[in-house]
Amino acid sequence: MQSANRMEIGVYSLADLYPNPLTGKTISAKQRIEEIINAAKMADEAGLDVFGVGEHHRLDYAVSSPPVVLSAISQVTKRIKLTSATTVLNTVDPVRLFEDFATLDLISNGRAEIITGRGAFLDSFPLFGYDINTYDELFHEHIDLLLKLNEKELVTWNGRYRPSLNAAEIAPRPIQQKIPIWVGVGGTLKSAERAGRLGTGLALAILGGDPSLYKPFIDQYRESAAEYGHVPENLKVAVTGHAYISKTNEQAKEEFYLYHSNYWHHLNLQQGVNKTFSREEFDQISGKESALFVGSSEQIIEKIMRQYELFGHQRFMAQMDIGGMPYKKVVENIERLAMEIAPVIRKETRK
C-alpha cells in the first residue's frame, strides 16, 4: 500500500532534561523549551511537514502541557503541522483536551493534531486523582468521548469515570472540520486493533530491532479498520523513532552513542533498572538492517524506504534531541533531514 501523495517528514521532542554526558551539565527547563521552539521554527523554515511535543509530569522533563508550547510555536511558524507526541489520554479530561487543541487550531490557522497514548510513566495518575487500576478503562472511555467531541458541537454522552454531558456546547470549534487524531502504539497489538476499530491514525514507535517485526501491528490496524467499515483512504500510519544523521555511518554511530546510551541509562533508572547499552550492543542495534535511524543520509533514506515497502506509511517523525544532546547537534540533524533526506523520500513515495 502506498500513500496517496507523498510521505510527510517531521520531528518531535519529548523534552527530557538529562545531563549532557560530555559536560555533566543539565540545562534549565526554560532553555529547553526555548530550544524546542527554535527547533520548530527552523523545521518550518526548512520545509518539514510536522513538529511534535510530548507530555510528561516529572522534573526531568520540561513539557507538561503540549498545547501551551505548541501555541507558542504556532506564533513563530507558518505552515508546519503541530501535534502532541503524545497526550497522556488516561489522565486528562477529554473536554479540556479538545478545547485546548481547538484553540491551538484557531491560533495556528488549522494546523493542530493530537497523538493520544497511555504514556510511559504513571506519575500523572496520582497527580490528577486517577486510579491506576483503571488504566485501560480510562483510555477507552476518554478516546470514545474525544472522538465524539471532534464530531459535533453539541454532545450528549454518558460514561463511568467522568460526569455525563447533555447537549453540552463544545467550544471553540476548530478551523479544520475535524482535528486529526492518532493513537500512539508501542508494543501491543491490542492498541493497534483499537486504533483501527476507531478509525484514528496509527503512530507506531519503532526504537530498534528488525522492522519486519512491526508489520503485524500495521496489518492488525488495517484489518480492524476494514472490519469496522472505515475508508482505507482515511487511514494514516506514522512511524516514529530515534534518529541521528551524520556524514558517514561510522561517524553517526560514534557521535550518537553517548547520547543514546545516556538517555536509556536515565530512563531505565526511572524504572528501577541500572542498565546501559555497551558500545558493542549499540553497534548491533544501529546496523544497516536495524530500525534505529542512525547513519549517513544515504543509510537513513534506505532505512525509511525499506520500512515504506513494509508498511506503506504516510508519515515519518524523528526524535533527535535525547540524552542531553546539545542544541547545535539537533540543528545539524534537522538540516540534514530537511535538505538531504526529505526531498528524496518525497520523490520516491509520491504517487
Automatic annotation (TrEMBL):
<dbReference type="InterPro" id="IPR011251">
    <property type="entry name" value="Luciferase-like_dom"/>
</dbReference>
<keyword id="KW-0503">Monooxygenase</keyword>
<dbReference type="GO" id="GO:0004497">
    <property type="term" value="F:monooxygenase activity"/>
</dbReference>
<keyword id="KW-0560">Oxidoreductase</keyword>
<dbReference type="GO" id="GO:0016705">
    <property type="term" value="F:oxidoreductase activity, acting on paired donors, with incorporation or reduction of molecular oxygen"/>
</dbReference>
<dbReference type="Pfam" id="PF00296">
    <property type="entry name" value="Bac_luciferase"/>
</dbReference>
<dbReference type="InterPro" id="IPR036661">
    <property type="entry name" value="Luciferase-like_sf"/>
</dbReference>
<dbReference type="InterPro" id="IPR050766">
    <property type="entry name" value="Bact_Lucif_Oxidored"/>
</dbReference>
<feature type="domain" description="Luciferase-like">
    <location>
        <begin position="7"/>
        <end position="310"/>
    </location>
</feature>
<protein>
    <submittedName>
        <fullName>LLM class flavin-dependent oxidoreductase</fullName>
    </submittedName>
</protein>
<dbReference type="GO" id="GO:0005829">
    <property type="term" value="C:cytosol"/>
</dbReference>
